[in-house]
């Protein structure tokens, strides 16, 4: 699977915190898209443990670690609402064709997005399969019914969720480059659970 030169993968994440799964996803996206843009944002359906500014700092460390010329953190795209993110993206890259990347665990949320039909008319939904999160034909049909164009990405992301880390912080769940900051500021209580 290869995309045209004007294709941009957009991957917003709560990065609460970024995990090995985020690292794998971003790395895989750089193999098939000419440009990959990521940012940290607040998810209106989640309660976040640490402030957005700190989560952005963690994501920036991860992007620097991956250090791929196709990958860029563009924090100005951050918004709790996808429709606002896309408005900014179209202003920054008016000639681009966008694929909005989500994990298979979030596919059921797409039809519930604010202005879902409008969003789906403007971008493709690129779904990255996550271990332990199969996607059903019913979920795909709901997206398609709203006019969504779906691409299932040709890779699977290992099970390594931010929520699992928040429940029981362990260094093995996050990229090692994040550990110094997590320990220094005792983010998520990692310094209390030195494992």
From TrEMBL:
Catalyzes the reversible adenylation of nicotinate mononucleotide (NaMN) to nicotinic acid adenine dinucleotide (NaAD). This is nicotinate-nucleotide adenylyltransferase. Pathway: Cofactor biosynthesis; NAD(+) biosynthesis; deamido-NAD(+) from nicotinate D-ribonucleotide: step 1/1. NCBIfam families: PRK00071.2-1. GO terms for molecular function: ATP binding; nicotinate-nucleotide adenylyltransferase activity. Residues 10-168 form the Cytidyltransferase-like domain. The gene is nadD. It catalyses: nicotinate beta-D-ribonucleotide + ATP + H(+) = deamido-NAD(+) + diphosphate. It comes from Prochlorococcus marinus (strain NATL1A). Its EC number is 2.7.7.18. One of its GO terms (biological process) is NAD+ biosynthetic process. InterPro entries: Cyt_trans-like (IPR004821), NadD/NMNAT (IPR005248), Rossmann-like_a/b/a_fold (IPR014729). Keywords: ATP-binding, NAD, Nucleotide-binding, Nucleotidyltransferase, Pyridine nucleotide biosynthesis, Transferase.
